[in-house]
Amino acid sequence: MDNYGWTTSGTALISSDKIILTSDTKSQAGSIWLLKVRFLIIFLPVHFRNWRVKIDFRIHSEGKKLFGDGLAFWYIKSYADTGSVYGVNERFNGLGIILDTYPNHEKSEEYPRVSAQLNDGTKMYDALKDGFPTEFESCSYDFRRSSTNIFISYFGSNSTLVVEFEDPIHYIRSSCIMSDFVLLPTGYYIGISAATGDLSDNHEVYSVDFESLDDMFHVDRQTSAKYEKVKPELKNFHKQIPEAKRESGGFWRFIKRLSLFILILFIGGTIVQVAYMIWKKREKERRKRFY
């Protein structure tokens, strides 16, 4: 893999067959940013409304039970703002797909996991909580050790984000994230970063394929340019209630419905009883007239 169209930052190194974002060494952070699409005279930032990225990567080390921290895909406004989120600024502006390999937080999610983050530059990514307060979708997938393909597709024409993994040996795809609420502007930069802290791993990228999907939606360049001022945000999105709360809410809904049912039975029974007493009284009076 050569360095045509890429710029590097931090500890990232480009060799003939791969990009080494970090070696298995503590306290490293490296990133690469796509500046030009091969064979096309198009300079990024990305001006496509609909696009897809395929990344062939590997995160690994030898004989270790503890490792970290992970790798991230970015579609953000500025690639020059470095920080502590896998080498990117904590208040990034755009989309981040975080492939986290070590749990800093006490929540019981299974790791490795994928966290989808959307930020307009005003929110702080909390690394100590693995970004839980600001994520809008997530999934667990064992992408560590062996080479893995990840597909990140954004269909801006219908505000849909899709994240899939593929086994590069058997070519079996697994769905990870699908959200129909994601608004992203055009004109942002695509990049990949990784970081190590007190724990470490090798974070390597073997290939990156980027393609426009605008032809699929019959979107021309002028139409895409209209979306440059769109604010990164979630449209009509309601985050799912955690399972424990959902179960608790379901229990109380059952109690309320049961109470309402009993109340209706009581009122209905009372009405029937009163009606029966009135009928019985009238029937008794009617019989008296025949004596």
UniProtKB/TrEMBL annotation:
Compartments, as annotated in UniProt: Membrane
L-type lectin-like domain segment(s): 1-213
Swiss-Prot/TrEMBL keywords: Membrane, Signal, Transmembrane, Transmembrane helix
Cellular component annotations (GO), alphabetically ordered: COPII-coated ER to Golgi transport vesicle; endoplasmic reticulum membrane; endoplasmic reticulum-Golgi intermediate compartment; Golgi membrane
GO molecular function: D-mannose binding
Record InterPro entries: ConA-like_dom_sf, Intracellular_Lectin-GPT, Lectin_leg
Transmembrane segments: 258-279
Gene Ontology biological process terms, A to Z: endoplasmic reticulum to Golgi vesicle-mediated transport
Pfam hit, one: Lectin_leg-like
Domain of life: Eukaryota
Gene3D superfamilies: 2.60.120.200
Membrane topology classification: Single-pass type I membrane protein
Record protein name field: VIP36-like protein
